[in-house]
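In this section we turn from sequence analysis to structure. A common task in structural bioinformatics is to predict how a protein folds when a small molecule is present, because the ligand can shape the pocket around it. The inputs are simple: the amino acid sequence and a SMILES string for the ligand, here 2-acetamido-2-deoxy-beta-D-glucopyranose. Study the lines below before reading on.
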Amino acid sequence: MNSFLARKAFLAWLITTVTAKTIQIPNTTPQNAGIPLDSFMSYSIELSSFPDFAGNLSHPNAFSYNLLRNIASLSSTPPIIRVGGNTQDYAIFNHSLEIGLFGVYNSSKSNDYPTTISIGPAFFESYHTWPGMKFTHGFNLGRDSPAARKALLESVPYACKSLSGSSLVAWELGNEPNDYAGVVRPESYDEVEYVNEWLYWSRAIRAQVDKACPESASDSNFKFYAPSYGLPDAGLDVVKTFEDDVDSDKVISHIAIHNYIDGADSPGVTLQGTLMNHLSNRASINVHIDAKRKLAALAHTQNPNLPYILSEHNSLYSEGRPGLSNTFGAALWGLDFNLLAAANNISRVHMHQGTDYRYQSWQPIATAKATKGTKAPYYGNIAVAAFIGNLSNYQKPRIVELPLSDGESSAYAAYEGGRLVRIMVINLMEYNATDYNSQYINHYQRPVETYSFQLPAGCSGEAKIQRLMANGSDAITGCTWDGFSYNFELDNGLPVRLGNVTRGERMKVDDGGKLSIGVPRSSAVIISLDDE
Ligand SMILES: *[C@@H]1O[C@H](CO)[C@@H](O)[C@H](O)[C@H]1NC(C)=O
Ligand SMILES: *[C@@H]1O[C@H](CO)[C@@H](O)[C@H](O)[C@H]1NC(C)=O
Ligand SMILES: *[C@@H]1O[C@H](CO)[C@@H](O)[C@H](O)[C@H]1NC(C)=O
Ligand SMILES: *[C@@H]1O[C@H](CO)[C@@H](O)[C@H](O)[C@H]1NC(C)=O
Ligand SMILES: *[C@@H]1O[C@H](CO)[C@@H](O)[C@H](O)[C@H]1NC(C)=O
Ligand SMILES: *[C@@H]1O[C@H](CO)[C@@H](O)[C@H](O)[C@H]1NC(C)=O
Ligand SMILES: *[C@@H]1O[C@H](CO)[C@@H](O)[C@H](O)[C@H]1NC(C)=O
Ligand SMILES: *[C@@H]1O[C@H](CO)[C@@H](O)[C@H](O)[C@H]1NC(C)=O
């Protein structure tokens, strides 16, 4: 047997082993099912890139707005845009600056974003270009010169006047202060110093809000995402931070932590081993489950029992790696990671974006480095929103992971009103099919894995099938959700039905309540049972 045939025989064996398992679906909502917050599928935008993503009042970015509204209509709640990140702590307000943002790059610090930044009053215009969307604005805590502190307070009236009423979800103060020690603070910087500093400046901000926008300074309106650590316990520990009473003013509304699976330049990082890998996602989520459990065990006075969210996350830190973070495989990674978060009450996810970033869901403008367009990861975001479903419904969707997950695939169930409404199956096995990756193209037919489910008693009739598809895990274009493309060049990010992709599949549930579905490698499917 030549090696090609041997491989084929091996694959056939793999396919039959998967077929053998039948996954039992609980009859009613399992007690431990996760409850996502509204706007579960949200975004974080690098502060220095926000004018590119949003535009300004004379030149609003309609393409970005269309992509955000697609997510909003699938979940019936708008994505929340967290404006912040590394550049939040570089940006110094200058009230005389006529343009929104002026940034200077220093290649020994970063090629991806400016590290010397001024923002002017016009920066805040960008909060008005996407009606109906909601925001968090990140204030600078990192720069602590007297001039920077004065500029922080001067920016507050502009910020609070731009973000009043329902468009403001929370403020933020400082980005990843767990990394300040030895960089912008002395080596000895610890939780106690952070808490003192955070309380001092959050109170100073409140005093300015109270002068300029009194209604936004009330107990119910003045809220923060905090502490914005890079991880729960790297450098500073979130549990110790709450023990030290960072929330003594009761102004924190969400415990907000960041996450990346690994680094763009870390050795040994691969698509299959690092991203398209449920076990790696689970290890990453476990760090947060552990922190959440410890926070919940704190004394009542220190534990506000707040929702725990990821206020910034994506695949590989340092803005992602080409060939990994920008592929359809990364879309499947994000789909699995975000649903695993939802199933574990990590109750909102803000996927980080920046102009020219390799892991971005879309490039908002044309630059010398990247073409304006919808990128593969966006299709994963759409599938997340479609699966989680209607978050403004009084019967909140609840999400559980199904016991299938072996690293190579995963499955989730969504319940509404105690009833199973949707199943998601994600196949995470690589299949290469794209020209730029010609050396690695798989010259065998794309294997189709079969998954069988025993549905709850009473499920019968037909199920609706919707697929997340591309030619392979290495595809960076040609992705579709349920037969639709959201590409820029078709209709500026609005959904466009493609004639060459299957849509409208239906499947009969058999008399015993069993359903089997074929899922091509490197693709995902939603099976909806609530459809007439
Ligand atoms: C999620 O939160 C709900 C409501 O508090 C709870 O019943 C459920 O057990 C939690 N599940 C997990 C996995 O934390
Ligand atoms: C603020 O911006 C104005 C107008 O561009 C400029 O003249 C001034 O030097 C800036 N101030 C600082 C402190 O950078
Ligand atoms: C608004 O955006 C346009 C296009 O990017 C730019 O030319 C203009 O300078 C911006 N206006 C301000 C006030 O920044
Ligand atoms: C760029 O950053 C390096 C490292 O922090 C610094 O030594 C250098 O002075 C900076 N260059 C400029 C032009 O600011
Ligand atoms: C979501 O639920 C709300 C409240 O029940 C309803 O008004 C809205 O039409 C639903 N949205 C969709 C897209 O079905
Ligand atoms: C797919 O291509 C990548 C390189 O882009 C390679 O590392 C990987 O092993 C290939 N996967 C398969 C299943 O051939
Ligand atoms: C996907 O595969 C089809 C059929 O081989 C091919 O015609 C099409 O150009 C491919 N699309 C992309 C984006 O590679
Ligand atoms: C389907 O059509 C689109 C637009 O014409 C094209 O870009 C894409 O490659 C086609 N996909 C396949 C799988 O043939």
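The first strand starts at residue 22 and ends at 24. As an exercise, try to locate the residues that line the 2-acetamido-2-deoxy-beta-D-glucopyranose site and compare them with your own expectations.
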